[in-house]
Amino acid sequence: MQQLRFGIPKGSLEQATIDLFDQAGWKVSGRSRNYFPSIDDDEMTCALVRSQEMGPTVASGALDVGLTGLDWVMETEADVEKICDLVYSRASDKPSRWVLIVDRESPIQKVEDLQGKKVVTELVGFTRRYLAERGVEAEVAFSWGATEAKVVQGLADAAVEITETGSTIRAHGLRIVCDLLHTHTVMIANKEALKDPFKKAKIDQIALLLTAALSARHKVLLKMNAPVDSLDAVVAVLPALNAPTVNHLSDENWVAVETVVDRDQVRNLIPKLKASGAEGILELDLQKLC
Fold it and tell me: What does the alpha-carbon distance between residue 278 and residue 237 come to, in Å, rounded to a whole number?
């Protein structure tokens, strides 16, 4: 039996990825005991690989496909095919940012001010290329962690660090000069694997369902009943992907209405729907939205 070799990112993205697979319809288990978690799909095998190493691992053919950050694909310049964007992380479903940070009192106000300075980061290759493209000559050194602390301690003039909100950076008395890169999770595939019809079809299936699961996280299904003479008023309140579904009930004076809306709109919509004549309003979570 043919099998697709899939790489799950080990570390900060690991649990969020397991949860996403679960929502998409796959159960992944046993990861705490070894580097080869089981999955309830005979057409797949899984391996845990660090995000930083996923690009080269997939490019080499050791894995057919994997999930990693766009930043690490760019850092390693891995020769892989990007299949789809999957915007999720350990903490949220928002992209992360690699930012240039300095001490709050630093005179550095822009990238060009790094001329002759020392910058520390985990994203060494990307940072060096970024500065070179702008004609800035600076020492870029690898940081094994605690990158922000090196700026606080005066061991570096600046750092390039990843953040979602910037709150931790500000709490340490540091200042964001600018964004260098916005990053998110991507599915990448080995180019030779994509030439295999079985593997290509399996990759497409996984990409479709993972994307559908992520899309559903931001949407809910609203269902309600409404008098026929209030239908126009109710429909006017509703934003919809296309148009709300309307079905007549056994009582010809009433209809059932349902539609998909953004989750963050619901708290404002429900009072307006009630005022327009809707009754029995239900909010239902979605698992997938294609």
Answer: 11
